[in-house]
Design a protein that fits this description.
homodimer, mainly alpha, 6 helices, elongated, DNA-binding
Chain lengths: 122, 122
DNA sequence: TATACATATGAATATATGTTCATATGTAGG
DNA sequence: CCTACATATGAACATATATTCATATGTATA
């Protein structure tokens, strides 16, 4: 039968389909990859950062441009750009006093495209 | 010139490329869409939920299966499944006492595929 | 070198969120 | 009906995180 009693600390259910569990466990990506994916989505999962990324999909922009576009403080934008920088999603170049940011990733466009489709699709 | 002084509450910078800002503003998706995207990514942006979704990419599973797979409490899994339910990312069917969950979305596979590529790619 | 300006950053605060614990709900079987 | 079991849920707690405020850093220019 497929109902096998397993002794685990956390789950004392009797109805465990251990064959399914084992199969899925074998096919799942490595824990580290999954953790990295969660981190990536966490970076995407903020309204301000979504707007910044969408803006940078089209154009390179300086910090002030972005602050103006989103009607937010320079400080708030700068903090968020640091998050995006640390996630290596944006790159920047300095031109005098002005720092220009742009996207540094090939996959972001696809991911955001799919996501836009998703939220538009209902 | 492109340096135009704009009076805004939040940004008092002098170097605003207002042509760029206007262009990007015109091309950006609607605020509501961007907010929905952020919400979607927020749901994806948790290690536990990433693991649940990845598991359900392959197989339909009951709550207990998932708890066993992730070695977490039934309660924790149930709470997270509720989040996924409210985001309409999973559907469920009841069979006696057991509730089986599966993915309820076409785009998730693509988004997760791209993201896995992304994190594997460096 | 003194000032102005664009950006970065540390600390503080407020808010959001994930897990645990206890318990409720719903269903099958004796 | 009473028990067992799978799942759901509310409250509490701990932790993470986004913005603000004040200030530091770095660069150009008078």
């Amino acid at each position: 039968m497929e109902n096998v009693k397993e002794e685990r600390d956390t789950c004392r259910c009797n109805v465990i389909h251990s064959d399914i569990v084992d199969k899925v466990k074998a096919e799942m990506p490595a824990e580290e990859r999954l953790a990295q994916m969660a981190e990536l989505f966490k970076v995407f999962g903020d309204f301000t950062r979504v707007k910044i990324i969408c803006a940078l999909l089209d154009e390179e922009m300086c910090v002030c441009d972005i602050a103006s576009l989103l009607d937010m403080s320079q400080s708030a934008i700068s903090h968020q750009l640091r998050v995006l920088r640390h996630a290596r999603l944006v790159k920047y170049r300095r031109e005098g006093r002005v720092v220009y940011y742009s996207l540094d990733d090939e996959h972001v466009k696809n991911i955001f495209g799919q996501s836009l489709l998703h939220v538009s699709h209902r």
